[in-house]
Amino acid sequence: MSSALTLTERHTDATQRLILSSAMDLLEHSGVPDLTVRAVAKQAGMSERTVFRYYASRDAFLDAVAAEVVRHIGTPPAPARIGDLPGYVRPLYTRFEEKSALVQSALHTELLRRVRESVAVDRWRAVRDLIDAHAPHRAERDRSIAAANIRYYLAASTWHYYRFHFAFPLDEAIACAETAVRLALEEIGRE
Amino acid sequence: MSSALTLTERHTDATQRLILSSAMDLLEHSGVPDLTVRAVAKQAGMSERTVFRYYASRDAFLDAVAAEVVRHIGTPPAPARIGDLPGYVRPLYTRFEEKSALVQSALHTELLRRVRESVAVDRWRAVRDLIDAHAPHRAERDRSIAAANIRYYLAASTWHYYRFHFAFPLDEAIACAETAVRLALEEIGRE
After folding, report:
1. What ipTM does this complex have?
2. Of A13, A14, B17, B168, whose CB has the highest number of CB atoms within 10 Å?
3. Domains in chain B and their CATH numbers?
4. How high is the pLDDT of residue A5?
């Protein structure tokens, strides 16, 4: 945007940081059903026009917010070895728990699709690659099922379901997910 | 409500049926984010006041709508024998599919909690009873994990996730759920 180019790099960065941190504040503390540019601008103490100086459209704005949500949640990287998948549940769910308000906001707003398309897709691809390398002797369909069922237990949606619909304590939610992941791995490893 | 008592039983029934069928129309065809008495009254061609003659409050109204949603979705009864649990996935998911718009409305509105508290709780209790009878030799915690992981795959949320987030065809979603249920049953049946 041409008007943004007249600002110094330093000022641009500071304003963008303020916009994104204001969005995080809203998502973490207000449980907003829809994240509007208006609400973020108000939270940041600036005009909507200023926000749109940095983001050409509402879509571009939401993309930036989703990327910031991913960075803030900061889930641990998917394991590189298949045997580490069940043990990955605990640090993952612990992180969801630490960032509970933000994760729930991401799950319940239009940010969900955007967040899924970034970090979740990477995690899912990593799981599928591990399964394919681990069980080349099994049919494609069986590997697809195992990978999907493992991915499902590594999703924030699943953490949320066990914690809030089943109302399980975190340790029990983790035990459920570890069990499901372990069973899927045992099954796909069979001859 | 005293004013309702002045109506004949026949008229009461017809009006209530109209209110509830108008609510179903809205949920099935309009993808409403929130089901309001105003929108239902408009759809039914009556005043909000008339709706409130039958339902003392918005809560009572939503309870009635949730009961009607459950009746319309009409999921098959949970199986009476543990060996029938994996095979229960297909008729259940097929029914979710047939009533897809209504199920998705139920999942994404404030009806969710109400629907879960009726039909879902019954289904869940049935699963837990089957597991307890099947594996009395296993620790309570292990039975709780197995029952939860099976319940999770019998939830409309899971059907929805596999169909719309994984974008799996129905048959593949069913295969995933059947596999997960079968593995949980095998595990809990071990000595």
Report:
1. 0.87
2. B168
3. 2-71 (1.10.10.60), 75-189 (no CATH)
4. 53
